[in-house]
Amino acid sequence: MEKMIYSFGGGKAEGNIKMKKKLGGKGAGLAEMTNIGVPVPPGFTISSEVCIHYDKNKSYPEGLEDEIRKSVEKLEEIMGEKFGGAKSPLLLSVRSGAAISMPGMMDTILNLGLNDKIVESLISETNNPRFAYDSYRRLIQMYGDVVMGMEHDNFEGIIQATKERKGVKNDSDLKWSDWKDIGEQSKKIIRDKTNEEFPQDPWKQLMGAISAVFESWDNKRAKEYRRIHSIPDDLGTAVNVQAMVFGNKGENCGTGVAFTRNPATGENVFYGEYLMDAQGEDVVAGIRTPGPISEKQAKESEVDMVTLEKRMPERYKQLEEVRHKLESHLKDMQDLEFTIENNKLWILQTRAGKRTAVAAIKVAVEMQKEGLINKEEALLRVTPDNIDQLLHPMIDPSATVEVIAKGLPASPGAASGKVVFNSDDAILEAESGNSVVLVRRVTSPEDVGGMHISEGILTSRGGMTSHAAVVARGMGKPCIVGCESLSVDYKKKQFTVGGKTVKEGDFITLDGTTGRVILGDVPRIEPKIAGEFEEFMGWADEIRRLGVRANADTYQDAKKARDFGAEGIGLARTEHMFFAEDRIPAMREMILSDTKEEREGALEKILPMQRSDFEGLFRAMDGYPVIIRLLDPPLHEFLPEGEEAIKELATSMGISVDKIHEKIKGLHEINPMLGLRGCRLGILFPEVTEMQSRAIFEAAVEMAKEGVKVIPKVMIPLAGYKGEVVVQKEIIQRVAEEVLSNAGVDIKYQIGTMIELPRAALTAGEIAEEAEFFSYGTNDLTQTTLGFSRDDVGKYIPDYIEKGILTADPFQTLDQDGVGELVEMGLKRGKQTRPDLEVGICGEHGGDPASIEFCHRIGLDYVSCSPFRVPVARLAAAQAVLEEKDRGME
Amino acid sequence: MEKMIYSFGGGKAEGNIKMKKKLGGKGAGLAEMTNIGVPVPPGFTISSEVCIHYDKNKSYPEGLEDEIRKSVEKLEEIMGEKFGGAKSPLLLSVRSGAAISMPGMMDTILNLGLNDKIVESLISETNNPRFAYDSYRRLIQMYGDVVMGMEHDNFEGIIQATKERKGVKNDSDLKWSDWKDIGEQSKKIIRDKTNEEFPQDPWKQLMGAISAVFESWDNKRAKEYRRIHSIPDDLGTAVNVQAMVFGNKGENCGTGVAFTRNPATGENVFYGEYLMDAQGEDVVAGIRTPGPISEKQAKESEVDMVTLEKRMPERYKQLEEVRHKLESHLKDMQDLEFTIENNKLWILQTRAGKRTAVAAIKVAVEMQKEGLINKEEALLRVTPDNIDQLLHPMIDPSATVEVIAKGLPASPGAASGKVVFNSDDAILEAESGNSVVLVRRVTSPEDVGGMHISEGILTSRGGMTSHAAVVARGMGKPCIVGCESLSVDYKKKQFTVGGKTVKEGDFITLDGTTGRVILGDVPRIEPKIAGEFEEFMGWADEIRRLGVRANADTYQDAKKARDFGAEGIGLARTEHMFFAEDRIPAMREMILSDTKEEREGALEKILPMQRSDFEGLFRAMDGYPVIIRLLDPPLHEFLPEGEEAIKELATSMGISVDKIHEKIKGLHEINPMLGLRGCRLGILFPEVTEMQSRAIFEAAVEMAKEGVKVIPKVMIPLAGYKGEVVVQKEIIQRVAEEVLSNAGVDIKYQIGTMIELPRAALTAGEIAEEAEFFSYGTNDLTQTTLGFSRDDVGKYIPDYIEKGILTADPFQTLDQDGVGELVEMGLKRGKQTRPDLEVGICGEHGGDPASIEFCHRIGLDYVSCSPFRVPVARLAAAQAVLEEKDRGME
Q1: In this complex, do B758 and A817 lie within 8 Å of one another by their Cβ atoms?
Q2: CA dihedral defined by B866, B868, B869, B874, rounded to 10 degrees?
């Protein structure tokens, strides 16, 4: 190990902001601030490499303790104080700080260096026994908790008992003698429980604290956090040892946190909170209400409290200078912690500030205009996933809510309405003008009508790509799925959860962004899409290579997709159109037909409906390609469930209930996902392919005559064999040529296939002999490659993630090692056969940033996703280019 | 084209037996026979290349007609006759003959050269007007049928009407004038229907006939045959033009067919049938009963008729000489056609004779002993699939049967019994001493008990690898599946088919070898396994590289597998053991448990049962490896279906019906194939893995103490991620070490995984870091790679084969392009990580010869199949080596 410790203080530091890996985010920030002249309490950072060494060997590298002693001596020099000294005692803090921020996940110990003797000299020096004894008991308790393994509750109990004994309510009502007493009791309880003494030797304290921080890297909480956030375990944490400064020494003291800009709106206003005569943790604890930092902030948020700007104008001015210095130096909005000790300003921490999506965009765009960053840097400042927030209403964060359950946040946004339990009730209620929320165990295509009319959808089962989730995202409707604690009773029309029963007609609110199910109607806010949004997305479009298309089945969705910037339709599911109430009878008639002739009769009724659907798509996508997938789902999905509905259908069609039962039985499949669906339908019933092709090309001709530029692409679903494409293509081509030549219109069109089976990817070279484009259906490809039924994975995926077998839900983020290899293999083999083969992706992964990065990297031509994910995809595609550049420069 | 026509006759031929591709099998045989001095009517063969040319261009290559004329002239010279001549007219036959035999699939025309005038000279020369007019009308009718596109029924109608008019019953009762008249009427009907005349010009006849044969290559029947037998379409057929010889000219004439050995038993006895004064087709037509050829044959088959040997001893002697000459020259049992014309013997055809499996083995072994062929050649003389026949009883071929339906022949052999419709009834009937046949729509694991006790199983749905098929083959029980014409009514306990109703208790017989469902009890024969069988299999073992193991779950099956030569168990399914009536309660208790503790209680009851099962397997496989797969199927398979059974279970377990319903609902999956099963179970419920591991190692210890050499291998099912193997391996290892060290016994064991998901094959390199062996579960790998649910494919696979999208059912024969690539990829990647990784296959494909050849070629270590397929696999593995050698020499 080259260098174990990096000092900072007295105007210069050995480290800098670029050394985050070694020094952690906090340590690197402290070093950088020191170097640019920001007042930082001096200290030193023990490198994360020491942690890695410690983690491996459970011992320190040779010479570390010597180095620490030398570093403390340096500190003593700067501060003119002595660690463990009877006079002017130097007190230290020890804090963890990893390269990637893990807030609250690891441990901190303050006030190191105090003991029974030194606390007395602190009193004589500060003349503030309350401060001294409070500081000492804090040390004892933190040390007992973090280093000696005590339960924190023990100490809380002592404080509580003391307050009761004294008959007071608040900590602030306790006297210095009480705090002294609490310190003594704390030492005693440590002795009783651990059989060890709280160490009086400051050096023992310091070394114990450092070890504890290193060990905290491997505690359960930290491991869990890393697992969830995909942070590698062998990164290690740095340890920051720093001279203590106190905001709670009296009148000229205070502490606060501040954002260099408003983190909610992004406005360029200094924004923060402060408390006089307080420690940092008191601001967070929320016992006293902190005041706003600046006058502008106070005015905007209509807070009638004294600002720091008013109370300490000099210190405020100094803080303002620090603000500008940090922003112009670090080129991002910062989140600061500061302390004022006896009228002297200290900055304890700086880091990039967390912000809402609105703020992220505003800050990025304004900083680009201010010349702080360029467009590429601006693009990297916004997390693509967050953009989704900009497109949906949100629950008013100031509202008080009663959360009754939590499920998977399947589709973002907030929705309130009366609870209904089936599509028919949803339609009835909605028609009487009520907002409704549809609650189901799971949804099936039969529910699509009800989903469409509902404000939001809640299911007790299913994962992030269950039917409910996919369809709701497609519709842009808030949706929560897999809310397993719900027990849904269709018969009684109610659900129960945690002892509560919610009946049909009761109001609930869904927060699809977080997965919270809330009782009652909760106020929502419509987020404003700031003017910078469009400009920002324009930059993304300038830089990205990947095309972005939308999955859309209706004119409305297609229009929305265009508004969101989609460059065509990557997937129009022709079956979604059949679930509407005025259409499903013809579809059912088709399915219930016994002969080709009967089927053709029913198809003839469907033809004009399909044609008008397709006209809408072409019209909305004027000048952009429209990929229309032929009928895909198993036929039984179109038939009614439940005796009631079957009876109704039998009556309306004039056939017997038995006949429908028989058909349903005949269509029943054990594994419908792997059954009679996709092009297998079109091959068994060529008349369906024929009708759909006719509808597509007749619509294209009609629109072309109206002057719309149509680019139709017909997609054959679920092919696994070249022969399947041959057989279907023959029909499509024949119909196309017939329709076009009859109309005397020349329209270029293509015929391609979805690649959603491993065999299709493996034999892509052969399939590309026939297919003119590929579109990866990565939902199904994930199901088959992994052997995971997306409808059934809810039972084990959480456990798999918990056990570390999976790092992410493969239906949300593409499994690059398995599915990804097949995607890449199919791409290469396909393009080898047909160099101009267009290859895209239209599964749910098309809207997932990590998966989009992969799609860019392997060289796909475009991604297609639901309209609401289009802006997300545009940004993610741009960032993929920037990341690639970045890697190229490494 | 080098040479279009190859002549033969007069003791020498331009072709030979090796030129099958050009001359077809028939032409090559005729040439070879001519060369070795066998009396063959002279003629010539038009090369199949002409057919290919004709097929492509719909015209002949230049100069063909000239060549034909020259060849006919050569014929005229040899025969001393003239084609189209008024005196000594030469008559010709035209027959197709492709390189691969397509019996009855293509067309033949005899007696070419006759016309209204020449028939008269034939009369004056033979003095036999009946013969002449009969020959002429045969020409007219064949020509009308084959060349002029008439329906054959037209001519049948004329003959029928004539017989009625004359009041006679048999063709032989018609007089010469009747035949003359029939000829005239035939010409007239041709004229009426086609507006063309039957050509009187012999040359026109000849050229028309040749064209018709070439065209017949592309007729529907021939195409269909090629599709079914995977014969390439661009092979083409040769055409044989040959001088006619007649066995029906009178007393010194006759015709017959003969096998050089008995095709049923393989015994070295000249075996055939003949008719005096008859044409070849009369033997086949079966109007007159033909007599046996040899005395030995007559004696053995107890036929009291005059033999050819008695009737024409000289000709018989000559035929015997031909027999020996052909066998010693062609080194295989031959199937001959001969004609004796005016006491002169002619051989019209020779080809390898079709034979039963028994005969195939006897002939091969005896010919090796006779020095005709070596062991390797002998091994190639038996089709592996046929070996299966040797292990099952067959329907007596002489019995008259009433076939009421036909399904897929899922498991060979014949079975008779009373029809039952569920497991309980099967058990009841069987317990009263009756044989039963279980009839179901489909079977589920619940039916295994009933299947076990039944003689045979018949299902109306499912494919060759449906549950019924797989389990029945495993049990070696005759089984027919996918018998779609059956309508099964469980309630009424009957099935209907083609208007017939078969009720519970009625007798049916299944022919699992052909798929025939037969009404009533039909006599069966137990085939004798000749002594040569064992010797023959020994030769296969000497040469094969692939190991052959068995899929067996019980001591009985394992013992049988050893008897059939299995070298270990490749797959023991631990769940099959749980369906027995005395065991399933504990299993159900385990599943219905709400807590880990309850589950462990139930598992404790199961432990001793599992242990004793495993003891049986180790005992049967003394010295050979036993691969035991941990629990694999979805849990709901273990729960009862139907209200009755649920009530019973509730009562017996003392819990509520609702609770069971709730559990069943909770376990219901939309796609169980892709759901909570395989190692996902063991990961969610580690206590199951723990119990099974304990049972395995306790059984191993127990057997080792008894002196059995145990080689346990624990197999983790359905892994897709290395992490899954890690998590399960940890449990297995821990339990193994504990059990072994407690017992103080040292047993080598391995932990491996099934590869049955595309992801597992793709990431095999990683998985092999943990797994010590791989076993490909190609059933599931086929399901996932192709997206075909084996339970649901029945709806489209037949159509796919019909349309040529599939060449074979991928569940029977491995899809080498898709699934095969994954198998090979996983093998390579696995061995790269772990060079000594053992890799085998345990799917149904492990018993399929074509798939075994593939397994050998890519370098798998072994195949594992059901006990009854073990001998098949041993032979197929040997043939794979020989084929490889053969390819190496090409």
Answers
A1: no
A2: 120
